[in-house]
Amino acid sequence: MASSEVTSSQPMPARPTRPNLAFRRLRGRRSPAEFAAAVRRAAREIGERVSCDARYVGRVEAGEIRCPNYAYERVFLHMFPGRTLTDLGFAPRSSVRGRRAHADEDAPPAPPASRAAATGETPGAQEPYDTQNHETYDDFEESDVLRRAFMTGGATVAAASLGPIGPAFDAAAAGRPVRRAGTSHAHALEEAVRRIRLLDDRHGADGLYRRASLPLRAAYALLDAGATRQATADRLHSGAGELAISVGWLAHDSGRFDDARSHYAEALATARMTGDDGLEAHAFCNTAFLARDAGRPREAVRAAQAAQRVGRSVGSARLMSLLALREAGGWAGLADRTGCEQALARAQVLYERGPSDADPEWMSFYGEAELEGLEAQCWSTLGDWPRAARHARRAAQLQDPHFTRNIALYTAELADDLARGGRPDEAADAGMRVLDLLDQVQSSRVQTMLAGTARVLLPHRRATGVSGFLERHASVPRTA
Predict the structure, then answer these.
(1) Does 285 share its domain with 253?
(2) 124: left (phi > 0), else alpha (psi -120 to 50), else beta?
């Protein structure tokens, strides 16, 4: 318990952080993003919900999180049986319980009174962690501010969960005056980006896009309000840019290409205003993908090459690998097999250099499955159906179960490649597997691919399983 001598007029002195070397050793050769994915998998195994990502892992290893909240504690002890929190490099919970955040602009909001009344929790008594400048609450994972904003579940619940993000966002979105933004606002903005990405991974974009405009509008209102510290302002700009890309992707995946183009352009402008090379590379990366899907392959090549020029400064081989794949997709759209093969080869070489701490947080989706899936799309565009099918099958087999939407996408790609390659029975079987996922995934991209496969299979109704697939596909409601 904090000493009674510590009062609001006598703030607790900052405590220098110590790197958590024990936790870093446990991560081993995995990148922060790969380790974060392992944490999320372990959480699902025991029925927990955590939004662990590369940034959280970095904060733990830097010593900023002295003791995890209870959900993370259960997950970590499940991952490393026989060890205690101390063995994992954390401070005993008794040594941090009860510390209060400084009452300044950087302090995250206390739990709402309604939650305190419902749970018996004392406001301000959540588990904290030490940062280099002040003590604050442990990772909004337990914060009602975000828990009520981003619940998980079915696609309908996911869409509804993009409601209010918290007091700061609510005020900004409603057009009410917002005071200078602090690090708590930056935390909330970054968490909004993570939760949108997690929900998209599980459910696809169609049920999320319309709801996502609220946090984006609030993010830019917070930028207009300004921040007293440059570091906070930089985080707000980066977070707003990443959120614009995430919302743009929701528009992109749900077939709203003009909206997506606008959001990506907004992110690109934000990146250039602040000199954020990583954000600029991300915006160009998504612009290239959109141009390919919109039938502008030459623009896709140019945008991917621009992304590679600015992305070199990030120092991530995995980022450069993904950008090479974006370029390959453009060359495929131009029917330039040689250009496509050269870009694919470059992407493979860069990927094999392995993960690094420089890999951007947003690239947590990019693993071997995505590499295979994007290569499958290239071969499909070039009309090499057997080769495309091999890569699509491998992508679906390799995909982490967390990425439900991608499993549906790769399997839909497989079904289409098999159908066009003259294997209707196998195509119907793969199509059935996609239909099984549509109660969890709402993606216009997946539905459009499946509709194309159904058209290709129409002349093959008598092949094994085709009639059943066509009848079931015809009964599936289409996303508005």
Answers:
(1) no
(2) left
**CA terminus-to-terminus distance, the chain:** 55
Query: Of the candidates 59, 75, 100, which is a domain's last residue?
Result: 100
3-state secondary structure of 130: strand
- Claim to verify: residue 95 and residue 183 sit in the same structural domain: no
- CB count, 10 Å around CB of 25? 11
Distance CA 38, CA 30 (A): 10
Angle, alpha carbons 365-371-376 (nearest 5°)? 125
Q: Is residue 69 part of a domain?
A: yes
The one-character DSSP state at 97 is T
pLDDT per residue over 227-250, tens digit each?
778 887 888 888 888 989 988 988
Residues 364, 330, 277, CA angle at the centre, nearest 5°?
50
Q: Specify which of 81-95, 108-122, 220-234, 265-279 reaches the highest per-range mean pLDDT.
A: 265-279
Same structural domain for residues 32 and 83?
yes
| Eight-state DSSP code of residue 227 | B
What residues pair up with 129 in beta bridges, in sequence order? 136
Whether residue 212 is contained in a domain is answered as yes
The predicted pLDDT at position 395 comes to 96
Range of the domain at 299: 276-366
b/e per residue 227-244 (b: at least 16 CB within 10 A): bebeebbebbbbbbbbbb
Helices 54-61, 32-45: inter-axial angle, 10-degree rounding: 100
